[in-house]
Design brief:
CATH architecture: Sandwich
Helix content: under 10%
Strand content: over 45%
CATH topology: Jelly Rolls
Largest sheet: 5 strands, antiparallel
CATH superfamily: GOLD domain
Oligomer: single chain
């Protein structure tokens, strides 16, 4: 069995990065894993657009879909961080830009949610997924 690595760029309204205003949340576009995927990791990045202050953090969550639970015709996802899976808190005051790589579950489809905890500074977020396939 040959194992291969494939990169999936996380996009935000079709862009490779997005600016998230202070106190706001933003979900990425939907991405799909390969049917042969058995493992995945994600690299998350947060780059403070201003001078970082204490408390300028971004929380990242993964919103997973196993498909269409009620047969309505489309994949369904958790709508916010309360039902997503917490991935990491990146602190742009301690490290700007802040970067972390963590494992994520493989599912039919996935979105990444970024919540900017800064009171005023915007933070530019980006991410890429590495899936392993057989």
């Amino acid at each position: 069995m040959a194992v291969a690595n494939h990169e999936i760029q996380v996009t935000w309204s079709s862009s490779n990065s997005a600016s998230v205003s202070g106190g706001a949340t933003l979900a990425s576009d939907t991405m799909s894993f390969s049917a042969a995927a058995f493992d995945a990791m994600i690299t998350l990045k947060a780059d403070n657009s201003g001078t970082p202050a204490n408390g300028d953090t971004v929380d990242f969550y993964v919103l997973l879909s196993c498909g269409d639970p009620d047969g309505s015709g489309s994949d369904e996802f958790p709508s916010d961080d309360s039902d997503g899976i917490f991935l990491a808190r990146l602190d742009t005051y301690a490290d700007d830009p802040a970067i972390a790589t963590v494992t994520i579950p493989v599912a039919k489809a996935v979105k990444i949610l970024a919540r900017n905890n800064a009171s005023s500074n915007s933070v530019t977020v980006s991410a890429c997924i590495n899936e392993k396939t057989a």
